[in-house]
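Here is one chain, start to finish.
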Amino acid sequence: MELAVGDFVGSYRVGCLIIATENSKVYESFHPSMCQKLALKLIPANGPCSPQQIADEVSFLRSISHPNIMSVLDVIFDPAYTAIVMPLATGGDLFDFVLNNGPVREQIACQIVFSMLNCLVYLHGVGICHRDIKLENFLLMDNNYDNPNIFLIDFGYSKRFKPGELMSEYLGTKHYAAPEIHISRPCMFSRFSIMESFFLILTHR
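Its structure:
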């Protein structure tokens, strides 16, 4: 589904396209009563995501609350799409942050890593595995790079799981996937992904 600047999704006015992926498109948006710019994630009904995947993502986002996980302000259901409304993060993603700033200073790296681990501990504590942990899925709320405030996004591959449960389904981003995933061997899905993210933050490689 293509949207143009000035179109409306529900009562949200569509702005410029921020990013387009295989599964969704994210636009800047504006709601008159909120008097602020927002982010509008549009998931097409006829796209790669199954109806169950879309329903699960919405359900997970509505059920969780954490200071480092992007909150959901509204969800709009339409026969052609599902639209998820979120606060607008203007600082870019962690991958670009590392790419543009080189190896991150140890103090800042510790702060970022602590926030990332906080997300995972919380999610695993409520029985949710994200399954696509990577630097690109952590956004910076603003351009305060000396005190980065990061938020985890994109729960399209997330799944409920039980304590100690191993997974082998090939999902997410291959460069962040555990070696076991490439040979369909069950493993702790997020462990390698988070360690790979830490390595990139600290080494810029």
